[in-house]
Design a protein that fits this description.
By secondary structure, the chain is mostly beta strands. It folds into 2 domains: about 120 residues, Immunoglobulin-like, CATH 2.60.40; about 120 residues, Immunoglobulin-like. The strands form 3 sheets. An 8-stranded antiparallel barrel has the order 2-3-4-7-6-5-8-9. A 4-stranded antiparallel β-sheet has the order 10-11-12-15, with no helix packed on it. Strands 14-13-16-17 form a 4-stranded antiparallel β-sheet. The longest helix has 25 residues.
Length: about 300
């Protein structure tokens, strides 16, 4: 009797265990699929705002070109945004490209040309923009950017940065142009200059103007405005539709255009003569579009006049 009861209990327990196992085996498992949409437009626009004081490495994806690679090192500080571009493994038929920064309004700004040799191209420049994406294109003049634009490289979205929707108002373009050059361009201390005598400065240019040189002559006068003369030497040809503009900036961050130079093939020298009634000021050269009336700098700075002590 006792043995029969034990066998009966054991059989019941075994049946329960098998039922539990069977239930566990057939219990459906629900897996939540998480999809992160980083860029709802499919990657055609990858505009981000770059952080101040942090070097960001950005991958440049080739568009319709296999094997090519590209990276950009971007560092934003109070004086502007420095961009170092490196392209490799380009096909032999690509000898040059133009690099553009596309802002949240979708407007491209030409940063400069990249010369390609043996499949490699490097480029360094600065821009007052802080929110943009980068594209490299064979087009010399890109006035608008959309999904049909002819591009060879396009920047990706760096980890940790959010995409800025296209069409967002670009108050930044005015604000940056009105604020950052003041931070970047030091006052020259004109009251300490000798009146009636030229003081000579030399500019070494960056970006598109790398390799060019210029001398600046500043002559304060007791009975009138200060004379300013900028003399270019070995001037690099500006990209199509662009000019070099000389600006004066006041201590309270007001800009005045002193003159501009339209460079042309074979033209290495040029001169701008002007004057200002400001007691003290800073001077710098930017690259701007030829269309429109400029009242403040918008394009990248290519040269700044500084007193070297």
């Amino acid at each position: 009797m006792r043995k029969g009861l034990i066998r009966l209990v054991g059989a019941a327990m075994l049946s329960f265990s098998l039922a539990v196992i069977a239930t566990a085996q057939i219990q459906p498992t629900t897996v939540a699929k998480v999809t992160t949409i980083q860029n709802p437009d499919g990657g055609a626009y990858t505009i981000v705002e770059y952080p101040v004081g942090k070097e960001t490495i950005v991958t440049l994806n080739p568009v319709g070109m296999s094997g090519a690679t590209g990276t950009a090192t971007i560092l934003r500080d109070p004086s502007g945004t420095t961009i170092k571009l490196n392209l490799t493994s380009l096909p032999p038929e690509v000898s040059s490209l133009n690099v553009y920064a596309v802002d949240p309004s979708g407007r491209p700004t030409l940063l400069g040309p990249v010369e390609v040799s043996n499949g490699v191209g490097t480029f360094v420049t600065t821009t007052p923009l802080s929110r943009f994406m980068l594209v490299a294109s064979p087009e010399a003049t890109m006035t608008t950017y959309d999904t049909h634009a002819k591009v060879i490289f396009r920047s990706t979205v760096p980890e940790g940065l959010a995409v800025i929707p296209v069409g967002e108002p670009v108050g930044e373009r005015v604000a940056v142009a009105a604020a950052e050059p003041q931070d970047a361009v030091p006052m020259l201390g004109i009251p300490a200059f000798r009146a009636g005598k030229d003081t000579k400065f030399r500019i070494n240019f960056t970006g598109v103007m790398s390799g060019s040189h210029a001398n600046v002559f500043i002559e304060p006068r007791k009975d009138g405005p200060t004379k300013i003369r900028l003399r270019f030497h070995d001037m690099k040809e500006a990209p199509a539709g662009r000019v070099y503009v000389l600006w004066v900036v006041s201590p309270d961050n007001q800009f005045v255009k002193l003159g501009q130079v339209v460079s042309a093939r074979g033209r290495n020298d040029a001169e701008i003569r002007s004057e200002t009634s400001l007691d003290d000021f800073g001077l710098f050269v930017s690259m701007e579009d030829t269309n429109g009336q400029l009242i403040s700098p918008v394009g990248p700075r290519v040269g700044i006049i500084e007193v070297i002590k």
